[in-house]
Amino acid sequence: MNYFLAKTDPETYSIDDLEREKKTAWDGVTNAQAVRAIREMRPGDRVFIYHSGGVSGVVGLAAVRSEPRDDPKNPKSAVVDLEYLGRLEPPTSLGEIKQSDKFDDWALVRQGRLSTMAAPQKFVEWMRSRYPKTTI
């Protein structure tokens, strides 16, 4: 199983929306590096849902439920179906991630505008230690 992180502006699409709808097509990504990350996703992989804007941070977890496919609205983009798995309470803020000094080489810290990316194993392990009662 691989892990990814997907950013969303909570005013556009939030963890509340995903929880209510139970699943969604993750689309609208145009950055070539982020599209590559979506094309690497496979059913069963996990995705940390990250709210950007306001208090930026990891707020929940989703599972990939489809193979990636071309976005019908944009042939240069890709889409994958995600299913809601749960919230991470309290959210892990970007400040906490940066203050840990463990992820300075990760795209989340280095490339603030990148919307979708692979999550390194050391981040997954760090998150597991922060949420021991959650299946990450």
Question: Would you give an account of this structure?
Answer:
There is one protein chain. It is built from 5 helices and 7 strands. Strand 5 (69-71) and strand 6 form a beta hairpin. With 136 residues, the protein is α+β, with helices and mostly antiparallel strands. The mean pLDDT is 95. Strands 1, 2, 3, 4, 5, 6 and 7 form a 7-stranded mixed β-sheet that branches. The termini are close together. The longest helix has 10 residues, at 121-130.
Determine the fraction of residues in helical runs and give it as a percent range: 25-40%
Which residues form runs of ≥5 with pLDDT under 50?
Answer: none
User: Helix and strand succession?
Assistant: EHEHEEEEHHEH
User: Could you say which structural class the secondary elements and strand pairing correspond to?
Assistant: alpha+beta
- Average pLDDT confidence is 95
The biggest sheet, with number of strands, parallel, antiparallel or mixed sense and barrel status, is: 7 strands, mixed
What percentage of the residues does DSSP assign to strands (E)?
Answer: 35-45%
Number of helices: 5
* Bulk shape: globular
CA-CA gap between termini? 11 Å
Total count of strands:
7
Radius of gyration: 14 Å
